[in-house]
């Protein structure tokens, strides 16, 4: 396609959170999100969209708010790769559990680097060394133990260590040199979608290349439509969305599936023909 390497620019990392049941994934996501929200924006935040961006030191990080396993299995089954970094949450009082191991396997299969968040450090029986010890069996050896895995002690509940996590994400993503073409044909992945009573089919998409604009004709999985409106992760109407930006789009004729790829077409007739063939 019209991939001109000269048009490539830096893009923000896309991060998913994985880990065993009740180890604190949702609490951590919510804590990170709310620390980066100004009071005036708080109202918009209650509106849930399946991904959000935070900013630290002038750099953005995109978090996918979907269950990590679903993000990996559904999306990878469809050939989509949306994650750059996985945060593996392990409760310091519980240690490595079956879904911890599953998460490691998913990330390894997708070749996605892992940062370990040792959570619940506020608990009396927190034992971060045990977590480190147990994870060595799965090839995750802490830097301080001579390996190359970053471990960050956190308390999602008390909101301790959140900045450290964000800084480590930036560190890892700098090495990755993530790039996207802001001028290329807009395409990306559907993160989640639903039929909204008032608004019709609503899809949260992650733009991965190009700039998606209101008025664009989009094919997503087996549906298509003209983008009627876009809403960002703060509940604001926006007119365009660039790489690594999560956005809700309205105007599709039907509800696509999570993991569906979307792409913009110049011509509505071509788009509808393409969809008919699928
Ligand atoms: P699932 O989505 O069900 O897999 O769970 P989860 O990993 O999203 O865990 P969740 O965030 O729902 O937290 C589970 C429980 O642990 C809740 O009662 C949280 O309040 C608690 N919890 C989460 N983080 C911390 C923490 O840092 N310290 C303490 N003490 N409790 C925490
Ligand atoms: Na839970
Ligand atoms: Mg949860």
UniProtKB/TrEMBL annotation:
Compartments where found: Cytoplasm
G-domain: annotated segments: 13-161
Positions annotated to bind GTP: 19-26, 65-69, 119-122
Segments forming domain Tr-type G: 10-179
Domain of life assignment: Bacteria
Role this protein plays: One of the essential components for the initiation of protein synthesis. Protects formylmethionyl-tRNA from spontaneous hydrolysis and promotes its binding to the 30S ribosomal subunits. Also involved in the hydrolysis of GTP during the formation of the 70S ribosomal complex.
Recorded family membership: Belongs to the TRAFAC class translation factor GTPase superfamily. Classic translation factor GTPase family. IF-2 subfamily.
Name of the protein this chain belongs to: Translation initiation factor IF-2
């Amino acid at each position: 396609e019209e991939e001109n390497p000269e048009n490539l620019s830096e893009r923000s990392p896309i991060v998913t959170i994985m880990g065993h049941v009740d180890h604190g994934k949702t609490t951590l996501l919510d804590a990170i999100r709310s620390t980066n929200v100004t009071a005036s924006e708080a109202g918009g935040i209650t509106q849930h969209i399946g991904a959000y961006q935070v900013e630290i030191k002038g750099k953005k990080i995109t978090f996918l708010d979907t269950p990590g396993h679903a993000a990996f299995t559904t999306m990878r089954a469809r050939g989509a790769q949306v994650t750059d970094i996985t945060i593996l949450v392990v409760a310091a009082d519980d240690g490595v559990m079956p879904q911890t191991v599953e998460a490691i396997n998913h990330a390894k299969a997708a070749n996605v680097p892992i940062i370990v968040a040792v959570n619940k450090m506020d608990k009396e029986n927190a034992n971060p060394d045990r977590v480190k010890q147990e994870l060595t069996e799965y090839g995750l050896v802490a830097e301080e133990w001579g390996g190359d895995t970053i471990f960050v002690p956190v308390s999602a509940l008390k909101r301790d260590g959140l900045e450290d996590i964000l800084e480590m994400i930036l560190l890892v993503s700098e090495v990755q040199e993530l790039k996207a073409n802001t001028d290329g044909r807009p395409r990306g992945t559907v993160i989640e979608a639903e039929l909204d009573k008032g608004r019709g089919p609503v899809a949260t998409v992650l733009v991965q290349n190009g700039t998606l604009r209101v008025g664009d004709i989009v094919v997503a999985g087996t549906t298509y439509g003209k983008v009627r409106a876009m809403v960002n992760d703060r509940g604001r109407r926006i007119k365009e969305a660039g790489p690594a930006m999560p956005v809700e789009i309205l105007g599709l004729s039907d509800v696509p599936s999570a993991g569906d790829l979307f792409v913009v077409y110049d011509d509505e007739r071509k788009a509808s023909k393409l969809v008919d063939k699928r």
